[in-house]
Write a structure and sequence with these properties.
With about 280 residues, this protein is an all-alpha fold. Helix content is about 75%, strand content about 0%. The C terminus is likely disordered.
Length: about 280
Amino acid sequence: MITSRAKSIYLDLKTSFLHALTITLRRDRFILMSIISVLPVMIPIFVALFSKTLFRENGLEIFVKLCEQVYIHTIAPLLALFLGLIGIREEVDSLTIIYLLTRPVSKFAWVLGRFIAYFLVSAFLMVMGIFFTFTSCVILGSIHFDTTGVSLMLQYMGVGLAGLIAYGAISFSLGTAINHPIIAGVILFFGWEKLANYIPGIADFWTVQKYLDSMFPALATQRYNRAVVSVLGSFQKELYFVSINRALVTIFISTVIFLALSVFSMRYREFTKDRVVGSK
């Protein structure tokens, strides 16, 4: 009985995953997000070609800024909105979700399958974007394809993937729970997340950005300075109020909670529109 149930859930998850993956790769938004993900690659190239000043930022500084401010703070929530949230809303707005959910399909498997598809596609774009950005920054010097440089790149990739998971789970819960999730997502990711950093107190602890920032490599722009590297550990302990382990645990727990809310909404929410028969 258990084996039969597990097999049924696996088949539902596989079907949901393959359907979501196929649909996502065929949409124009995938092409749009692919272009956005590689646009930062051009910045180091333009700096190398057109900036002749001796005081321009070096490759290491540019790479760190692009990873933190562009990929993790901007592109990660954009990927969650465009590939995660819109993917859910497409089913809801077209009312095809009603036909999907009237079949004997596990709601848990349906949500998880789509979440895995979203994560794999967005993770590919994130990893490729950071990798090519790192490669283009090498031409500016001060960062190289050595142990230090590759380790820094992998750390930023890890933080970016953590951001995709957290933002994606929130997007899924918004997409299944409310009627205007895109507006709510923009306000939450690009309004509240930024505003909370300027509010005194503990408001920033209620943002994803707080925990992602705590996972950034300490003194990243000084990674090739041996005198600075020797004090990285104490620097993290003194200045970072949230440890990396706590940040990871918080992101994991929040992801589980928001995905559970998505499953709950799929089970009990009535997906209808005003234009159904009998309404004006």
